[in-house]
Amino acid sequence: MTDAGSSAPDDTTIDDTFEAASTAPEEVREVLDAQREQLSEQLHDLGVEGETGIVDDNFADTAQVSAEQGEAQALAAQLRDQLDDVEHALTRLDEGTYGTCEVCGEPIGDARLEVMPATRFCIEHAG
């Protein structure tokens, strides 16, 4: 890896990138476990799991409550998707396929994995 302020080109090969990403699976697991815990806590704190959608008729502004519930449910869906990605990354770590793109099978760049450890795709196949 080159320093951010360095003007030298990055001469890391694909094999070097994969090796760097795969040399410390215990560190990757720690990061992914921490993300899983944080996402689970955020979902729990939102309190939308198992919510019935019943609003107190005496509440002054039921439209606002409904809007806030909708926002909380949308956020919960995003958090669930992120949690699914983290769980999938942990499974791939166990299987020995972590760090490879699910589309092309090529190694995912070390810098991308550092920023997005649960990513499934190389930069070419992202989005």
CATH class: Mainly Alpha
The computed structural class is mainly alpha
The CATH architecture can be given as Up-down Bundle
Fraction of residues in helix:
55-70%
| Strand/helix succession | HHHH
- Domain count: the total is 1
CATH superfamily: DksA, coiled-coil domain
What is the end-to-end distance?
Answer: 25 Å
Radius of gyration, CA atoms, in whole angstroms: 20 Å
State mean pLDDT (0 to 100 scale): 79
- Helices, by number, come to 4
The portion of residues forming beta strands comes to under 5%
Molecular structure report:
The structure is a single chain. This protein is mainly alpha-helical and 127 residues long. It has one domain (14-47, 62-125): Up-down Bundle (Four Helix Bundle (Hemerythrin (Met), subunit A)), CATH 1.20.120. It is 56% helix and 0% strand. It has 4 helices and no strands. It has helices spanning 14-22, 25-46, 62-95, 110-115. The longest helix is centred in the middle third of the chain and has 34 residues, at 62-95. Residues 1-23 have low confidence and may be disordered.
Short description:
By secondary structure, the protein is an all-alpha fold. It has helices at 14-22, 25-46, 62-95, 110-115. The protein has one domain: Four Helix Bundle (Hemerythrin (Met), subunit A) (Up-down Bundle).
